[in-house]
Design brief:
Elements lengths: L2 E9 L2 H18 L6 E3 L6 E11 L3 H13 L4 E12 L4 E10 L1 H17 L12 E6 L5 H15 L8 E3 L1 E8 L6 E9 L3
Antiparallel strand pairs: 1-3, 1-8, 2-6, 4-5, 4-7, 5-6, 8-9
Helix pairs in contact: 1-4, 2-3
């Protein structure tokens, strides 16, 4: 059976991806040589994941898109903007560097919960709780303590000098396919569902 690695996401407009690249550049500049201790997200593929589905049979794609549709039907367009930088699990012990979100985040969480409920009925459970963020990079395995300290300091420097970001409007969500390649994942939209339809 042909399997496809999938997730439901909000795709980001080009100007917002440019802002993400600018934030990555600020962090790199503040890290000195420690920026090599991260696998930076490729900006052309950055998105806001609403729910990761994992490997699903290719024959179920139409049903999944159909399942997402009722979750989006009651939603209206959502205005959000990029927020400040942070890290999971903490800034002091960074493993994943991220940008938070501002704006109608509660409305975004409501949309995600509605989609998740519909997908749950199809047998797809969330792999973790939804925490609205956009991943900027991941700390590599086996980095030195000094590198972690430099990464943590850079996060604090950039967080202490916040950059205002414009609002962008979410009007649809996409079922995305993820092809893992040596140079990084390549993402393709398999289906698009408009909000409020």
């Amino acid at each position: 059976m042909d399997m496809v690695r999938t997730f439901v996401a909000v795709e980001l407009p080009a100007d917002i991806r440019k802002r993400l690249a600018d934030t990555q550049a600020l962090l790199r500049g503040a890290m000195g040589g420690a920026e090599k201790a991260l696998r930076w997200s490729r900006v052309d593929g950055v998105h806001l994941t609403l729910q990761f589905l994992g490997d699903v049979p290719s024959g179920s794609i139409v049903a999944i898109v159909g399942g997402v549709r009722p979750g989006c039907a009651g939603a209206t367009p959502i205005d959000i903007s990029l927020g400040g930088v942070g890290a999971f699990p903490t800034v002091e012990r960074p493993r994943v560097l991220w940008l938070g979100l501002n704006g109608d985040v509660a409305q975004l969480q409501t949309l995600q919960a509605a989609i998740s409920k519909q997908l749950s009925a199809l047998g797809y459970q969330p792999d973790k709780p939804f925490k609205p963020h956009i991943t900027l990079g991941r700390v590599r395995e086996h980095v030195s303590k000094d590198e972690l300290v430099s990464i943590s300091r850079a996060l604090q420097v950039v967080a202490g000098n916040p950059t205002p970001h414009p609002l962008f409007t979410v009007t649809y969500v996409s079922l995305m396919k993820s092809d893992l390649q040596p140079a990084g994942a390549v993402y393709t939209a398999l289906g698009v569902v408009q909000l409020g339809k």
